[in-house]
Every structure is written in structure tokens, then in C-alpha cells.
Amino acid sequence: MKLPRKECQNVKTKDYKKDQTFILKILDRQNSTWQGSILWVEQQNEQYFRSALEMLKLIDEALVQNDEKTGGDSHEE
């Protein structure tokens, strides 16, 4: 769903103090989704995923973990 231009201007965003970099390796595509690995560059941590949803969850967990270490809050509204 596309938000009207007026509502988009009211959406709160947060300035992150440090960017996080992820490198994706898509190794296969089965059941209409991706399988592969994701490397969190700053932490040199590589994990494998079995679906695009699992990949997004890994990224979200990494960002939350980074916020806990730096004292930030990526889910701030």
C-alpha cells in the first residue's frame, strides 16, 4: 500500500550513528525463495538462511544486537 504524500512526511525516521554492512550470497532458489548466506561485515559473522524471510530476520537480529552494544534503539518510534 502506498501512503499519500502528506502521510509520508509524518513518518518518523532515525539517524543511525553507524552503518552496518551485509554481504548476501544467494546459493540457490527453491520453493520461490532464496537460500544462501549472509555475512555481517563489521562483526565478521556469517550465517546461512533457508528463506528470504529468515534472511530478513537475521539482519533485524544483527541490528538489534548492534543497538544493544551501542546503546541505541532501532525500534524507536
Main structural class = alpha+beta
Please tally the helical runs, counting DSSP H or I stretches of 4 or more residues. Answer: 2
Average the pLDDT over all residues and give the rounded result: 81
List how many beta strands DSSP finds: 3
Spell out the helices and strands N to C: HEEEH
Low-confidence stretches: none
> Compute the gyration radius: what is it?
15 Å
**Main β-sheet, spatial strand arrangement:** 1-2-3
Distance between the termini: 20 Å
Principal-axis shape: elongated
Helix proportion of residues, in percent?
A: 25-40%
Largest sheet, strands/sense/barrel: 3 strands, antiparallel
**Which percent band covers the strand fraction?**
25-35%
Topology (elements, then pairings):
Blueprint: H1 5-8, E1 22-30, E2 33-40, E3 45-49, H2 52-70
Antiparallel strand pairs: 1-2, 2-3
Structural key phrases:
alpha+beta, three-stranded antiparallel β-sheet, single chain, 3 strands, 77 residues
Describe this structure in words.
The longest helix has 19 residues, at 52-70. A hairpin with a 2-residue loop joins β1 (22-30) and β2 (33-40). The chain is elongated and about 40 Å long. With 77 residues, it is of the alpha+beta class. The chain has two helices and three strands, in the order αβββα. The relative contact order is 0.17. It has helices spanning 5-8, 52-70; strands spanning 22-30, 33-40, 45-49. The chain has a domain at 19-70. The model has no long low-confidence stretch (mean pLDDT 81).
